[in-house]
Every structure is written in C-alpha cells, then in structure tokens.
Amino acid sequence: MLGLFRRPPAPDQDFAQADLELRRARDRALSGDWLAARELLAATGRDWELRGRRLAALGDAAEDSPRWLNSWEATAPDDPTVAILRADALLGQAGSARGSASARNTSPEQFAEFHRLSALAADASKRAIALNPDDPYPWVTRMSTNFAGGEHADFHRAMDEAVRRDPVNFEAHLSAVSFLCAKWYGSHEQMFAAARGPAAAAPAGSPVVMLPLLAHFEYALREYGFDSRSESLTAKRSYFHRPEVIAEIQACAAKWRGAGEPRLTGRGITVRHWLALANFLGEHDRKGTRVLLDQIGPYLGSTPAYGYFWMRQVEGFHTVWKWAN
Predict the structure, then answer these.
(1) What CA–CA distance (Å, rounded) separates 316 from 201?
(2) Which residues, in sequence order, are bridge partners of residue 12?
(3) Distant-in-sequence, close-in-space partners of 109: CB < 8 Å, separation ≥ 6
(4) Phi, psi of 196 (to 5 degrees)
(5) Which domain of life is it from (predicted)?
(6) pLDDT tens per residue across span 311-322
(7) What's the Cα-to-Cα distance from 319 to each of 11, 306, 315, rounded to whole Å?
(8) Measuring CA to CA, which residue among 178, 268, 243 is closest to residue 217?
(9) Phi/psi of residue 260, each to 5°?
C-alpha cells in the first residue's frame, strides 16, 4: 500500500547522471576554470568506461558553451585531451543539426548540415587519434562520424582500432549496435550479432553484457510502428512477453551482477534504466525494478530508449516508475 503514496522523482536530465565529480568539474569549466576538467580526466586514468562517459559529457558541454574549451585550446593547443573534446563537440553539433526525427521527417537542409559537421568532426578525430595513440575513445568518435554517410569500411576499421585498445569498450560496442541496426545501416541480424557477441565475451560486471537489451529495444521500435511510438505500445510490449526475450534479459542481468553490485558511475545508471524498462515491458520482476529505480533516483540523464516507446523520455521514466511502485 505504501507504493500508492509514493511520487516519482522530478527527473534530473543532466547528462552526467550520478557522477557528481563530473558535474562539479564540468560546472567549474563552464564558469571558466577549464583546469578542473583537465584534472578530472587526468585522475580518471585508464578506466576506459568512466573516461569515455566523462569525455562524452564534457564534449556535450562544449557543444553549446565552447568558451572554456576555446581557452584551454588556446593555452595548450597540443593537449591530447583538447583534441578529443574538440572532435566530440563537433560531433555533438552534427547530431543536433540533424535532430532525432526519422529520415522521412528530416529536411534536406538538416541532412546537409549533419554531413558538413560530421566531416569536420572526422577531420578533428584524426588529430585526436594522432595525439592519443593508446586511447580508444578518439576511435569511437571516428566511428560515430560515419553515421552521416554509412561508410562501413571506415566504421569497422575504427571499431577494430577501438576494441584493440579496449576489448570491452562500452561506447565502441554501443556505437556498433546502433550503426548496424535496421534503422541506420544494417539489419536485425547484424545488430543482434554486434550486441550478443561482445556480451558473451565480456566479463561479469561489464555493462557490455547488457547490450542485447538495447538490440531488443531497437527491434521492437522498428517492427512495431517505427513512426508511431506510443500508439503501438501494446504491440511492442507483447514482444517483451516472449519467453526467449525474457530469458535473454534475465541472463544478461545475472551476468552483469555476477561480480557484485555494479557501480552507478560510468554506464551504471544507463544500463539500470535499460533493465527497468525491459522489466516493465515484459511485466517482469516488479520488486527488482523498484530496487533499480531506488538506485537510479532522479538521474534520468539522456536515456533515448524510453523515447522508443513514448514520445518523451520523461513520460517513459515516470510510467515505468509508477508501474514498479
């Protein structure tokens, strides 16, 4: 009965989610203290999952408010980290120029700007790669620049370089699942292979083991009303009631927890959202979903998977929360 009196939290859509150190450093950078961002990334070291997430958040911050990055670049033009953030900021601008609508609802002008900025990001990624020879992340940025043109050869070459440096690099494998889905430049078969192969090879506790959940979300989006979202929610939910889908989701979750309770930073919040959403769609493990949502708290961040089933991410998050509670 207590659940009847609980209210969903006001969603916190900060891209940094539960990484409070990242929030503080980013906010200091935005106020002009770019040294805070440099020090944070230096302290992150070779924790590639955490580093990738922090670079993505800082690149996102530089997309709309680049003054601090410009100052850093002017002071230390050959700083390897600056080169990564510059490439990522351009990539973010490309994505914003295109927008999140389906291809049929995207204008020629939007596509043209998407291609132009993606080409600039690709050029910037080459410099970032040269200055960061051991870091997989510049190769991930390079992978993402191919969404503008669907260049499979360049995408896979960049993928190979990223995973050679870090075989369980979440950002690289996430990009591969997206690039190879039917919505972009692949097929359902290629997408599931890109998710299931790395998930099987990854060690227990790695967020990579949760990538098949994203593949199921993509499949349901494409097969059950690509342009209608919530209007076909009943049909999409029926897919997640299939025994084989539930079994795979359970197996992924068990392996993800196999090394103990995973952390909240890095991609910990993202994959908790995925599991909570999958449980809701399959009407499975309501109690476990409450635990997940208590761990998540208000940190919605940017979780596009909710938008696959509702028109707004916030609406999806609150719907799942109310079901679990």
Answers:
(1) 31
(2) 299
(3) none
(4) -75, -35
(5) Bacteria
(6) 799 999 999 999
(7) 12, 10, 6
(8) 178
(9) 105, 175
Rounded distance between C-alpha atoms, residue 187 and residue 114, angstroms: 23
Q: 184-199: per-residue pLDDT in tens?
A: 999 999 999 999 999 9
Report the range of poorest mean pLDDT among 1-15, 41-55, 232-246: 1-15
CA pair distance 188, 19, nearest whole angstrom: 33
Q: Which CATH class is domain 32-179?
A: mainly alpha
CA-to-CA separations, 315 to 159, 303, 305, in angstroms, rounded: 34, 12, 12
Burial class (CB in 10 A: 0-12, 13-18, 19+), 49: buried
Domain boundaries, the chain: 1-19+213-325, 32-179
Does the pLDDT at position 2 exceed 60? no
Q: Is the pLDDT of residue 1 over 50?
A: no
Query: Angle at Cα 88 formed by Cα 82 and Cα 207, nearest 5°?
Result: 110
> 258 pairs with which residues across the strands?
260
| Residue 63 near residue 96 (C-beta atoms within 8 A) | yes
Hey, what are 255's tokens? 């392996």
Q: pLDDT-derived band of residue 227, with 50, 70 and 90 as boundaries?
A: low
pTM above threshold 0.90:
yes
Q: Which two tokens stand for residue 157?
A: 């070459």
Amino acid at the residue 181: C
